[in-house]
Automatic annotation (TrEMBL):
Domain IrrE N-terminal-like: 28-121
Protein name: ImmA/IrrE family metallo-endopeptidase
Domain of life: Bacteria
Species in which this protein is naturally found: Caldifermentibacillus hisashii
InterPro entries: IrrE_HExxH, Rad_response_metalloprotease
UniProt xrefs under PANTHER family: ANTITOXIN HIGA1 (PTHR43236), BLL7220 PROTEIN (PTHR43236:SF1)
N-terminal signal peptide: none
Taxonomic placement: Bacteria, Bacillati, Bacillota, Bacilli, Bacillales
Length: 138
């Protein structure tokens, strides 16, 4: 188990949920829905000891949930770094902090799920509203 998985386990056990929206609220991280350009899914901003997750209000519920998990990863793993916009092409990013935020989101959203309960990796991703590009984190 790597450090990101340990952090997800610690959070979910402490707060008794793997919902990124609930955890954000409990950690006093403000989630803001904004009418962003269709290519921009969301971003994280740190300002004067306040943490904000901005999510494109035009996304489907599943995408909002994934974006919240990804940006929550930034808020907790990279607290003082403002991050670039999360775009669809960012899902393929090789940038270290983007990879870590994606891994955090996948581990959080799939907490207590087992690959053995699904036929394929794509089934577990689809049924849990996670983009297929995240398959490498399973």
């Amino acid at each position: 188990m790597n450090w990101i998985e340990k952090e997800v386990n610690r959070l979910t056990e402490k707060y008794k949920t793997n919902c990124p929206f609930e955890i954000s609220g409990l950690k006093n991280i403000h989630v803001v829905y904004w009418n962003l350009h269709q290519e921009i899914w969301g971003f994280y901003k740190y300002e004067r000891r306040n943490r904000f997750i901005f999510i494109n209000s035009n996304l489907s519920h599943d995408k909002k949930r994934f974006v919240c998990g990804h940006e929550l990863g930034h808020a907790l793993l990279h607290t003082k770094l403002n991050t670039p916009f999360l775009r669809r092409n960012t899902l393929y990013s090789i940038d270290k902090i983007e990879r870590e935020a994606n891994e955090f989101a996948v581990n959080l959203l799939l907490y207590d799920k087992s690959l053995e309960d699904y036929e394929t990796k794509f089934d577990i991703l689809r049924e849990n509203g996670i983009p297929y590009e995240m398959e490498r984190f399973l």
